[in-house]
Specification:
Helices cover about 45% and strands about 10% of the residues. By secondary structure, it is of the alpha/beta class. It has two domains: about 170 residues, Rossmann fold; about 200 residues, Dehydroquinate synthase-like - alpha domain (Dehydroquinate synthase-like, alpha domain), CATH 1.20.1090.10. Strands 1-8-5-4-2-3 form a six-stranded parallel beta sheet, with helices on both faces. The chain has a two-stranded antiparallel sheet with strand order 6-7. The chain starts with 10 loop residues before the first strand and ends with a helix. The mean pLDDT is about 95.
Length: about 375
């Protein structure tokens, strides 16, 4: 196992009726900006619960943060933060709202002239404006980590940001919110969390047995609860396990002391930026071709994954590895998620070359856990996903 330094300062309030405790988590006298997305919180009861809990605070709202949080929209929110002297941010939503709030936490205290530089140049945020979250859609794990991904539509770019100043101070996770989530978003959340785990697990062994078991248990739990959640989102037991699995999949724990990949996400972000495809679905598009292309370097872990998660015990290591890849694709399809780029757009020709060129221009020439994945490999992987 590799050396690691683990610190996660986010407090989690998990379970029913935890929104009632919201006020106790925010410093008295704070001037709060509530951030949310398309407005579903005003129809599912969450907005009412949040505003009631914050009745003693000065509160301003900003809605309309889109999926794949858009820089131009966030800049509108930033102007409110500065003009209204906001002192605390509260994200009420899914991963996009949480990610957008993290950007705002960074930008609010940024001393440079152009906040996009934080994103474009991946400037780590050491201190951001304090914020908390009320999670309404499990998927990204953003409620308990310091990472975010921001989109700029005008340039068709999508980049990750992070830093120790971007951990939420607290996150409220109430599994009952899941009953109001549309099925497409539920499927996306399951797939997103699943691939988060794969990116930290299907690399190569460093003898981190416990980390492997942590990862495998999250994958097994997602496989177990997925059909229940899709059929009946009001099943509290399944919802609770789904929500906590998403959080545990990307809160820093399973990635400690082990090599990590993240090439699937890097490529997937480009598909979202170019075509507007849901983030989770871009991951499903790339996963099979990525693992097939990198079979030789990943087959030991792929075979282990096939055996421990999918109970595939027959065949050689390579045969089990390939069977594990196929099981993953089948799992995505069982959620109603298409896994080929051509399922989403007819304008896919030339995409592989364009993404490869983008990676080259950015200097992203050594990717993956072994730092051996090149832009040429990326082009091949994308072509295989057509």
């Amino acid at each position: 196992m590799n050396n690691f330094n683990l610190h996660n300062p986010t407090r989690i309030l998990f379970g029913e009726n935890q929104i009632e405790k919201l006020a106790s988590q925010i410093p008295e006298g704070s001037k709060i900006l509530i951030l949310y997305g398309g407005g579903s919180i005003k129809t599912n009861g969450i907005y009412e619960q949040v505003t009631e809990a914050l009745e003693t605070f000065k509160v301003i709202e900003f809605g309309g943060i889109p999926p794949n949080p858009e820089y131009a929209v966030l800049m509108e929110a930033l102007s409110i933060i500065k003009s209204e002297n906001i002192t605390y941010l509260l994200a009420v939503g899914g991963g996009s709202v949480l990610d957008g709030t993290k950007f705002l936490a960074a930008a609010a205290l940024y001393e440079g002239d152009t906040p996009w530089d934080i994103v474009k140049n991946n400037i780590p945020t050491k201190k951001g404006m304090p914020f908390g979250t009320v999670l309404t859609l499990p998927a990204t794990g953003s409620e308990m980590n310091s990472g975010a991904v921001i989109t700029r539509a005008e340039t068709k770019e999508k980049y990750a940001i992070g830093g120790p100043g971007l951990f939420p101070q607290f996150s409220i996770l109430d599994p009952t919110v899941i009953k109001s989530i549309p099925q497409r978003q539920l499927a996306n959340g399951i797939a997103d969390a699943f691939v988060h785990v794969l990116e930290q697990y299907i690399t190569y062994s460093v003898g981190a047995n416990l980390q492997d078991r942590f990862a495998e248990s999250i994958l097994q739990t997602l496989v177990e609860v997925a059909p229940i959640i899709i059929k009946d989102p009001s099943d509290y037991k399944a919802a609770a396990n789904f929500m906590w699995s998403c959080t545990m999949g990307l809160n820093g724990l399973i990635g400690q002391g082990v090599p990590q990949d993240w090439a699937i996400h890097m490529i997937g972000h480009e598909l979202t930026a170019l075509f507007g495809i849901d983030h989770a679905r871009t991951l499903a598009i790339i996963t099979e071709s990525h693992y097939t292309h990198n079979l030789e370097s990943k087959k030991e872990k792929l075979a282990q994954y096939a055996t421990r998660v999918w109970d595939i015990t027959e065949g050689t290591m390579e045969e089990r590895a390939k069977a594990g890849i196929q099981k993953t694709t089948d799992f995505f399809k069982s959620l109603g998620i298409d896994t080929k780029l051509s399922d989403y757009t007819d304008d896919f020709k030339g995409t592989a070359e364009e993404i490869s060129t983008r990676f080259t221009d950015r200097g992203w020439v050594k990717m993956g856990e072994n730092a051996t994945l090149t832009p040429t490999d990326v082009a091949t992987i994308v072509e295989m996903s057509y």
